[in-house]
């Protein structure tokens, strides 16, 4: 039973970690877009 809980938690943690990383990346891109727009620069 303990192994099942450990494996279940391991499988369920990865989507949460992925969502956090995706949120950080999207936030950084949004910040860069706003900064480029405010400075009249190209994003690329």
Order of helices and strands: H
Please give the number of β-strands. Answer: 0
**Shape label:** rod-shaped
- Low-confidence segments, given as residue ranges, are none
Rg estimate, integer Å: 18 Å
Number of helices: 1
Distance between the termini: 52 Å
Describe the sheet with the most strands. Answer: none
Oligomer classification? single chain
Q: Mean pLDDT across all residues, rounded?
A: 92
- Percent of residues in beta strands: under 5%
Question: Can you describe what's shown?
Answer:
The protein is mostly helical. It has one domain (1-44). Helices cover 84% and strands 0% of the residues. It has one helix and no strands. 0% of the residues are buried. The mean pLDDT is 92.
Summary, kept brief:
By secondary structure, the chain is an all-alpha fold.
List keywords for this structure.
1 helix, mainly alpha, single chain
Helices and strands, with pairings:
Elements: H1 2-38
């Amino acid at each position: 039973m303990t192994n099942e809980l450990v494996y279940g938690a391991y499988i369920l943690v990865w989507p949460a970690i992925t969502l956090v990383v995706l949120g950080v990346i999207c936030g950084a891109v949004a910040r860069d877009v706003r900064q480029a727009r405010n400075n009249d620069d190209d994003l690329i």
